């Protein structure tokens, strides 16, 4: 029922040219993890959970030890959150900016020790010493990986606040969602309480396909522009999910990278018009766009010199 698998790694799936661009696992990668865990974790019993980083655990009651002895019945996605249904309790995970999920056929029996290791949580799904399971790890010094143990995913505040799921959004809903909004379009698309699932990388891809400026005012799009935006959201995400589902993990990172048209490609030619892909940096992130395809040749001001995007 559960074919043997070697160590498999999910998570930050792109190695961009700049360190702060596009490392975040987004909806297609989360969908691939869900698919994988449904095949390899559902039907197994949680025998032990090791919390290595207490900072990652966001709930105290029920205790994580209540997961022990429970069968994994299903795995779902809520926006960019993972949800393992463990027979009345849910293990909910947000991988944040640099989170990873590693699956192993055999996990070490000895409990891991807290330290400088990127390991945050280990979940055993079989007898100690011969059990498969997975590790949740997080690279870097800025830690954001979060884990909740709850009776219902709705108890997780960020999930309760999620907007409609991007892949399921119809044209009328998108029009209503954008109506009257004064924020820049890039901001609206990546605000999870407005629209869930789109992150920095795939919003860049959507805007490029839709031929829309990241700085466009969301509530001022024409009906034709909303049509293009809706079609781009559906096609970009559907294509990315299709390419991600079922791939061997060694190919998952490369597949995402090869499938991106503008994100993480600063200085390279646009695959549509051959203009040079440009970048706007703000805070600790950046986004990319094509001037010819999206802004009528205009170069957008960088946040290092402007306040256009928050």
TrEMBL record:
The keyword DNA damage applies. Its cofactor is Zn(2+). CDD domains: BaFpgNei_N_1. GO terms for molecular function: 8-oxo-7,8-dihydroguanine DNA N-glycosylase activity; class I DNA-(apurinic or apyrimidinic site) endonuclease activity; damaged DNA binding; zinc ion binding. One of its GO terms (biological process) is base-excision repair. Keywords: DNA damage, DNA repair, DNA-binding, Glycosidase, Hydrolase, Lyase, Metal-binding, Multifunctional enzyme, Zinc, Zinc-finger. Coiled coil: none annotated. InterPro entries: DNA_glyclase_Znf_dom_DNA_BS, FPG_cat, FPG_N, H2TH_FPG, Ribosomal_uS13-like_H2TH, Znf_DNA_glyclase/AP_lyase, Znf_FPG/IleRS. Residues 261-295 form the FPG-type domain. The keyword Magnesium does not apply. Belongs to the FPG family. This is Formamidopyrimidine-DNA glycosylase. It comes from Actinoalloteichus hymeniacidonis. The lineage of its organism: Bacteria, Bacillati, Actinomycetota, Actinomycetes, Pseudonocardiales.
């Amino acid at each position: 029922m559960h074919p043997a698998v070697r160590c498999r790694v999910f998570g930050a799936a792109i190695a961009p040219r700049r360190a702060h661009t596009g490392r975040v696992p987004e909806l297609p990668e989360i969908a691939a993890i869900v698919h994988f865990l449904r095949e390899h974790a559902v039907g197994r019993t949680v025998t032990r959970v090791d919390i290595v980083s207490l900072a990652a655990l966001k709930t105290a009651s029920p205790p994580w030890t209540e997961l022990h002895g429970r069968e994994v019945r299903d795995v779902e996605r809520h926006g960019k959150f993972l949800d393992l249904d463990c027979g009345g309790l849910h293990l909910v995970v947000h991988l944040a900016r640099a989170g990873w999920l590693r699956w192993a056929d055999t996990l070490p029996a000895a409990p891991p020790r807290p330290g400088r290791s990127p390991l945050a949580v280990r979940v055993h799904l079989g007898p100690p010493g011969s059990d498969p399971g997975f590790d949740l790890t997080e690279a870097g010094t800025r830690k954001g990986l979060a884990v909740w143990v709850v009776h219902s995913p709705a108890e997780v505040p960020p999930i309760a606040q999620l907007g409609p799921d991007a892949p399921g959004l119809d044209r009328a809903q998108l029009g209503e969602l954008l109506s009257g909004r004064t924020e820049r379009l890039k901001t609206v698309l990546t605000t999870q309480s407005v629209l869930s699932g789109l992150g920095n990388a795939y919003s860049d891809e959507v805007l490029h396909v839709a031929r829309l400026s990241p700085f466009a005012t969301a509530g001022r799009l024409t009906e034709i522009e909303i049509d293009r935006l809706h079609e781009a959201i559906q096609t970009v995400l559907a294509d990315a999910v299709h390419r991600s589902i079922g791939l061997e993990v060694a190919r998952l990172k490369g597949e995402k990278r090869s499938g991106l048209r503008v994100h993480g490609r600063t200085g390279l030619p646009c695959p549509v018009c051959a203009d040079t892909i440009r970048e706007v940096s703000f805070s600790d992130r950046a986004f990319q766009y094509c001037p010819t395809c999206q802004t009528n040749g205009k170069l957008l001001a960088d946040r290092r010199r402007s306040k256009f995007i928050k």
